[in-house]
TrEMBL record:
Organism lineage: Eukaryota, Metazoa, Chordata, Craniata, Vertebrata
Species the sequence originates in: Neogobius melanostomus
Family annotation (CDD domains): M20_yscS (cd05674)
Protein's name according to its UniProt entry: Peptidase M20 domain containing 1, tandem duplicate 2
PANTHER family (alphabetical): N-FATTY-ACYL-AMINO ACID SYNTHASE/HYDROLASE PM20D1 (PTHR45962), N-FATTY-ACYL-AMINO ACID SYNTHASE_HYDROLASE PM20D1 (PTHR45962:SF1)
A Pfam family assignment: M20_dimer
Swiss-Prot/TrEMBL catalytic activity: N-(9Z-octadecenoyl)-L-glutamine + H2O = L-glutamine + (9Z)-octadecenoate; N-(5Z,8Z,11Z,14Z-eicosatetraenoyl)-L-serine + H2O = (5Z,8Z,11Z,14Z)-eicosatetraenoate + L-serine; N-(9Z-octadecenoyl)-L-methionine + H2O = (9Z)-octadecenoate + L-methionine; N-octadecanoyl-L-phenylalanine + H2O = octadecanoate + L-phenylalanine
Amino acid sequence: MGLLSSAGTGKIVRIVGKMDGAKYRDILEENLLESARELRLGRRFTFQQDNDPKHKAKSFPTVFSSSKVKHELVANYSHLFWVQGSRPELQPYMLLAHTDVVPASEDDAWEVPPFSGDEKDGFIYGRGTMDDKGSVMGILAALEYILMKGYTPQRGFYIGLGHDEEVHGLNGAVNIVRLLKERGVKLLFVLDEGSAILDGILKGLDGPAALIATSEKGATVLKLSVSMPPSHASMPPRETTIGILAAAVKRLEENPMKRLFGLGPEGGMFEHLAHKFRFPLNFVMSNLWLFAPLIARIMERNETTNAFVRTTTAVTMFNAGVKENVIASYAEAFVNMRIHSAQTLKEVLECVESTVGDPRVKIEVVYGFDPLPISPYDETSFGFQIIKKTVLDMFPSMIVAPGMCIANTDSRHFKDLSSSIYRFTPAIYKPGDAQRFHGINERTSRENYEGMVQFFFRLFQNCDIKKLPESHTSVHEL
Ligand SMILES: CCCCCCCC/C=C\CCCCCCCC(=O)N[C@@H](CCCCN)C(=O)O
Ligand SMILES: [Zn+2]
Ligand SMILES: [Zn+2]
């Protein structure tokens, strides 16, 4: 059975229905297969070669040879594509993804080696398959098809593929933004990774829900340190640098930041989803003004849903000591916090200082930024409605709601270029999948990867309307 044996059935046929039937189905299948092979050949994507422009040029020959596409390398490794539209009066939009990945160790308990790109039981395994090679390949494959088909987009669009998103995007995304600013570009909307279709992750919700994140949390990394003169382990002081610092981080863990559930974009998210929850949760979710504190207490029991409730606190590094019989003169810990939309960096710092409550513990901000603005999602918001329509084209009965990205994305650097920034990929995630991000056994199903290509292929075409129709209902009927 071929990798994309479903390509001959309903799913693919639906998208090629607008093309030339069987002929294009063959092309699509062939190219999906090729792209899936590329994704499976994880080594080529997950190592530096991925940043070799020749590699992408070979995989997507039409993209790289089309007169409609201008490609440039930014900061040596990031890619900026401009796909010219036939109607220059239409404001362009931008798609983002990134080619870099977090490390993965062969020593961890991966079911298949993390850089093998091996396929098992319908899933392609490998570091980057979820975060964020699926988007990279989905966007480029969809562009390849649409160009092969001879389709000229009416609305021009940019594609930005960063190479350093996992370390803040300071070379990739930041320089892409600089270039676009220099060129006077303003974007109708921006679409990046950061949220998805959740199926069974939100307990009590019947069926999957596509959550288009309209904002992302702020973040800070704090360095906590304690210093004292070193001494002999046989005459220990009553408290050591390690003990003092351990107690401080323990206080932070035992005193989570306050519950803010309902006060950020997650409020709108749950109100939109309310009618899909089973009784009595549907009633509870419809009345967040009254029940938010109760829901927060339930959601905080699970680490994924807890992230929607508050600013989170993660002690990620602890370094101290040089020798087992020397009292350590210095101990340091790093605390990674993700700031809820209803809080500011300043408020978080004040709270940490008060919880640590020990002047011997020095607190330094390694970096920090406030939560991102909330992008519009009403019926007149072009980007949100077009993304929603594209999801509904693929999954007609899907519930689509605004959501919140609990991590950070390159899109945060684009806030001066657009007030409509969305984070969403059409991958369907189930219980257990959240732990695969930056974790072990990162994988994408064949269906998710196929869906990614379909989604962007449809999105390019859906963006070609000049403006939204008057009523939201009719957007889906376009
Ligand atoms: C963090 C994953 C949480 C999974 C929650 C499952 C529900 C949402 C479903 C899918 C969307 C997940 C999108 C994850 C995007 C992750 C982006 C990322 O890793 N960003 C980094 C940037 C690092 C910048 C330097 N510190 C991050 O936030 O750490
Ligand atoms: Zn990512
Ligand atoms: Zn990541």
